[in-house]
Every structure is written in structure tokens, then in C-alpha cells.
């Protein structure tokens, strides 16, 4: 992020955090649909990378909120942040299991190697 998060107000942090959390939730939902419908392993990997990036982007905003909020509200904020991190970790395990379960399957996209998703 090119913005100076250290200058964000509580409202700016909350607004940005809300958008990031919605995007993380969307990525997790889409990953689970990919797994349930046995769709593209590449798409599952891409969505996981996106969710991890969004979670990383939300870290500095969470830190700024913790600086600005009263202790009790800060604790709730931290719990929520950790819950989103846990959600991403859980779906990461699901994606890894899905990719393992499809080991040996032909790539749906020619030339893609699930062992090397890059």
C-alpha cells in the first residue's frame, strides 16, 4: 500500500478493514466452491494467494487501529483480525488437501503443473 497508514483515522481504518475483510471472505467462499465443484486447482491457488495478500494488507491497518482504540475495543479488533487469519489458514489446508486429492489428474489448463503453481 502506498498510503501512509500511520496517518489514518479510526474511520479510515475501519472502512479499509471492512473492504479487505469482504474481499478475504469472498476469496474463501470462492475457494470452497472450487473445491466442492472440483474445479481449477490453479484458480484455488490463485485465490489463496490473493486472500493471503489481502490478509497481509490488513495487518498494518489492524496495528493502527490497536493504537487508536480503547483497550476493550482493541481486544475485539485483534480477535476479529486473528479470526480472519484462522479462516485463511483453514481454507489453505482445504486447498492443499484438494490439490493432493487431485494428484495425478490431468491439468484442466494445458501446461499447468500443480506441483509448481507459479
Automatic annotation (TrEMBL):
<protein>
    <submittedName>
        <fullName>Uncharacterized protein</fullName>
    </submittedName>
</protein>
Amino acid at each position: 500500500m502506498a498510503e501512509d497508514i500511520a496517518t489514518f483515522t479510526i474511520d479510515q481504518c475501519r472502512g479499509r478493514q471492512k473492504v479487505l475483510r469482504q474481499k478475504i471472505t469472498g476469496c474463501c467462499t470462492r475457494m470452497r466452491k472450487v473445491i466442492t465443484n472440483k474445479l481449477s486447482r490453479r484458480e484455488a491457488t490463485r485465490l489463496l494467494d490473493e486472500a493471503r495478500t489481502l490478509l497481509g494488507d490488513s495487518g498494518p491497518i489492524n496495528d493502527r487501529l490497536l493504537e487508536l482504540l480503547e483497550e476493550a475495543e482493541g481486544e475485539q479488533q485483534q480477535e476479529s483480525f486473528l479470526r480472519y487469519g484462522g479462516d485463511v489458514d483453514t481454507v489453505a489446508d482445504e486447498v492443499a488437501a484438494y490439490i493432493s486429492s487431485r494428484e495425478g489428474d490431468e491439468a484442466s489448463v494445458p501446461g499447468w503443473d500443480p506441483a509448481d503453481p507459479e
